[in-house]
Amino acid sequence: MDETSETRQAALAYVESLENRDWPRLTTLLADDVVYEMPQTRERIRGRPAFLRFNTDYPGDWHLRVRRLLADGRAAALWLDVVVGADALEACVWLDVDEHGLISRITDHWPEPYEPPPGREHLVERWSA
Amino acid sequence: MDETSETRQAALAYVESLENRDWPRLTTLLADDVVYEMPQTRERIRGRPAFLRFNTDYPGDWHLRVRRLLADGRAAALWLDVVVGADALEACVWLDVDEHGLISRITDHWPEPYEPPPGREHLVERWSA
Question: What residues form DSSP beta bridges with A82?
Answer without folding.
Answer: A64, A89
